[in-house]
Amino acid sequence: MENFDLLMHGFGIAITPFHLMLMVVGVLLGLVVGVLPGLGAPNGVSLLIPLTFTLDPTSAIILLSSMYWGALFGGSTTSILFNIPGEPSSVATTFDGYPMARSGQSTRALTLAFMSAGIGALIGVVVITLLAGWASRFALRFGAPEYFAVYFLAFAAFIGMGSASPVKTVVSLATGLLLASVGMDNVTGEVRLTFGFSDLLGGISFLVVVIGLFGIGELLATVQEGLRFRGVSSRIDLRDMLRTIAELPRYWATTLRSGLIGIWMGITPGGPTAASFMSYGIARQASRKGAAFGSGRPEGIIAPETADHSAGTCAMLPMLALGVPSSATAAVMMGGLMIWGLTPGPMLFATKPDFVWGLIASMYVSNIVGVILVLLTVPLFAALLRVPFSIIGPMIVAICFVGAYTVSSATFDLWLVLVFGLVGYVLSRLEYPLAPLVLAMVLGHKAENAFYQSMVLSDGSLGIFFANPLVSSIMVIALALLIVPKLLHIGARLRGRRPASQEIR
Amino acid sequence: MTVRRFHAEVATAIGTGALGAAAVIGALELGHGWSESGPESGYFPFYVGVILILASLWNLGAAIVARQTAQGDDGAELFLDRERLLRLGRFIGTMLAFVILTVVMGIYVGAASYVAWNAWRSGGYRAWVALAIGCGFSVALYLVFEVAFLVPLLKGPIEPLLGIY
């Protein structure tokens, strides 16, 4: 019941007129960001962080997390109405959402998506509420070697469990770690890897990199396709909406299953995108009428949406309790936390209970605010996509550059955005995963510090990572995550059960 | 003018490998071994750089192998065809011009000209409408960033003449 009291205290912080206003603003901004191509959730949050420096951290995180929820909702809107996923995690929603909307049931499709997204998020927050206290107490036992082991676990999970080629994930991670180590070394105070460029002395801001990789990079992908938006009617019919809400309980099994998948993928570093695909796939297998998927089945909308949002919400748990974000957006938010002077991790629960529980309580409120707002404003945001790309595209580009400039008022960052935009486009076209790069950039310093401290403790022996049961079990899990998926894959290939054409990479 | 996927893969692998090599060289200058107090500051970048080089070599090899096995069925996959390359080239070209203009003249002039140019050339709007859209956008930027959030943006030589600092 201890958590319950803390949560009530959190509600006291979250439900103030100012914070409610921040939630509305955050959700609306998130919707804009989610609807527009090239402005995804990680990028949107990066753009907003420099503007939050004047707010106190609790208000700032409420604003940023509300924006994240809004972006998740916005991503589903375009998936359904335009067959264009506004976010990578809403790709799976296009499979059944767009066909349903095209057959004249756009209200039904949108309502299903938003309601199940809201339910998914609530499932996620309930899990966070129940586990937060326990997770942070557990993490209080962690020393430097355990922390390094946890970071290693996060990296290993991306390599072993990600859908991309493992070696490409390694490249992405290593690039992120190297980018993070440019500038002042925070252990020895030496200047590293600047090669004499004074612009690099302060290091490379991960915000600038995210804006380039995700913002400009995604926009270039849009341009390459020569995208023209062909939308379906976006009017919301109130009676249809109520009828759809009444039909929701029928899909309780799909909802529950997808929620669980989302929780699992959110806490382990699978992330919302993997969760939504996995959930869609399992819903299709579980359904008796499997063949009808892809033609506008309600389960085909509910499954990815519930999983997407519960994963997105649950990604906040490892970020807060361990300081290990499991999605790109959570990584950016964690970077923001560190800029505000907070250290994510177990001590946060002890030293800043107002911040942690205010945030958790705000997740309940802002997701409900989000569902209501998104249902009210869908026609408005759908209209945004009817603005010609020749106008909205350059505006997005300009906003990305402006946002990068506000990070540290350096013109050098403008060039960095341009370079990372091109890099991000090429890398994502070649199926290099970008989320590990961001994660590595945010965690780079912390991982290096933890490694350094462990080495000092052990006089340079790697044995310290297997010195006690706690750290060795984390390391064993990490190594297993690294190796087992590939062994299974090779094993399956040796037995020749899968024809080469069907291999899942 | 087309770009094949093979060439893109190879160029990327060489690029990431070069980044790793740069890190290794930088780390060697700093010292990558052990000092009295623990690892020297080049230790971490050195080994990450080595991993990056090895992984890049692997990707390079994988691209070459993939090309040899794919040779039988209709050549290599296209990365960018002519039309897309042109479209991307135009977009990146104007974006580059925007950045140069912004660095010289400030963000407001840069953004207004960039938005107006695109609306005029690729949007097909009349010149004065396009210019109005561009200027309106810059005014909106000013109101949001400098007035509402008190965040100063990059200014060029023109703004002081208008009394904006």
UniProtKB/TrEMBL annotation, chain A:
Keyword DNA damage in record: no
InterPro entries in alphabetical order: DUF112_TM
Xref: PANTHER family: BLR4373 PROTEIN, TRICARBOXYLIC TRANSPORT PROTEIN
Organism, as annotated: Paracoccus litorisediminis
Keyword Transmembrane helix appears in the UniProt entry: yes
UniProt name for this protein: Tripartite tricarboxylate transporter permease
Taxonomy, superkingdom: Bacteria
Positions of transmembrane segments: 6-36, 48-69, 109-135, 147-180, 200-221, 319-343, 355-376, 383-404, 410-427, 464-488
All residue ranges annotated as the DUF112 domain in the record: 20-439
Keyword vocabulary terms for this entry: Membrane, Transmembrane, Transmembrane helix
TrEMBL record, chain B:
Domain DUF1468: 18-153
Transmembrane intervals: 12-34, 46-67, 88-115, 127-151
Superkingdom of source: Bacteria
Keywords linked to the UniProt accession: Membrane, Transmembrane, Transmembrane helix
Claim: Membrane is one of the keywords in the record: yes
Name of the protein in question: Tripartite tricarboxylate transporter TctB family protein
Species classification: Bacteria, Pseudomonadati, Pseudomonadota, Alphaproteobacteria, Rhodobacterales
